[in-house]
Amino acid sequence: MFETLSHLALQQYWWIIISVLGAALVLLMFVQGGQTLFFTLSKTPEERTLLINVLGRKWEFTFTTLVTFGGAFFASFPLFYSTSFGGAYWAWMILLFAFIIQAVSYEYRSWPGNFLGGRTYEVFLFINGLLGTFLLGVVVASFFTGSPFLINDMNQSFWQSPWRGIELLFNLHNLTLGLAVFFLARTLGLLYFLNSIEDEELQIRIRKRLLVNGLPFLLFFLTFITWLMLRDGFAVHPDTGVIFMQEYKYFINFIEMPVVLILFLTGVVLVLYGIGVSVFKETSKGIWLAGPGTFLTVFSLFLIAGFNNTAFYPSSSDLQSAITIMNGSSSHFTLTVMSYTSLMVPFVFAYIWYTWRAINRHKMNKEELKSENHIY
């Protein structure tokens, strides 16, 4: 089946898969966002333990999706992987280290004889929530703003900054998306708490925090999108493969791909509506609107970054070194073999959905913690 497809069709197919995984990863960052709220929302150690255990049921989903996202990117677009992970070394290492301490923290926080103390691991979870969301947003923003690298004729990449990825923090456009993802994750975390916790006092505090985090998210996100629509983009000549700067490139991508624009607008409306009904109608179902909305919005941004003759990993040092889905992918044979394995993706998502529903069959309360065999 897949072997009959052209190389370009396979490249586009795998960019869609990468976009799906990237969107799922940002959605599942509600775990990281919730981790930054433990100290703000809880008034007692028992309340903090309740919040931690509500997220403890889901932290593996985010971790697994991150690993799958990275693995799929490496296999389908190895030139991006080698250039970015080899060049922006410190940005990726800090991000990955933040996820390592998350796994350790959930497993060892409540262990008997824990010599570091539970508080230490709670701080680690906060660090993971802060760095994980913010840095992911900054790195994704570089798909639109560019990174300082050169690639020679042998596909060897050379990073042009001694900061090894830290220089991405010096770009204001990158920072706006980093902060947008941070506050979005916190907002989704609050919506998830509302839907998963049975505690009246905590729910009152959660609702008070929704606007405090939802409004900054909206401000930074609108700033990023407006800036993106107005800036020049990294376009690819369809016949020669030459990279050039095009005015309003990403706005043009939306116009020339109306289905993607509809998905994007639908996603934004769902996110805003999910926040709004949770604040003003006091429903606990907002996560079921804002969650899919987040997925559609991020999915659309990935599509305009790589489709419609666009360089998805542009170089700010040398235009012709920019990586596209055409020049950065694996061979036709590799993509074909991988495509058969991708047929398992729907089953994986079905399993996640089934497990999620089973875990969230009823809301968690303080009494339930006393009957749990395993407490994070």
The tally of beta strands, per DSSP, is: 4
| End-to-end Cα distance | 46 Å
The radius of gyration is 21 Å
Helix-strand sequence: HHHHHHHHEEHHEEHHHHHH
Subcellular location: Cell membrane
Pfam families: Cyt_bd_oxida_II (PF02322)
GO molecular function: electron transfer activity; metal ion binding; oxidoreductase activity, acting on diphenols and related substances as donors, oxygen as acceptor
Family: Belongs to the cytochrome ubiquinol oxidase subunit 2 family.
Question: In a nutshell, what does this entry contain?
Answer:
With 376 residues, the chain is mainly alpha-helical.
What can you tell me about this protein's structure?
The protein has 376 residues and is mainly α. It contains 16 helices and four strands. The strands form two sheets. A two-stranded antiparallel ribbon has the order 1-2. A two-stranded antiparallel ribbon has the order 3-4. The longest helix is centred in the middle third of the chain and has 31 residues, at 200-230. The mean pLDDT is 90. One of its GO terms (cellular component) is plasma membrane. InterPro entries: Cyt-d_oxidase_su2. The chain crosses the membrane at residues 12-41, 87-104, 125-151, 171-194, 210-230, 250-275, 287-307, 337-356.
Secondary-structure map:
Elements: H1 7-28, H2 30-35, H3 38-41, H4 45-56, H5 59-76, H6 78-87, H7 89-108, H8 118-145, E1 149-151, E2 157-159, H9 172-196, H10 200-230, E3 233-236, E4 243-246, H11 249-256, H12 258-280, H13 287-306, H14 332-341, H15 345-359, H16 366-371
Antiparallel strand pairs: 1-2, 3-4
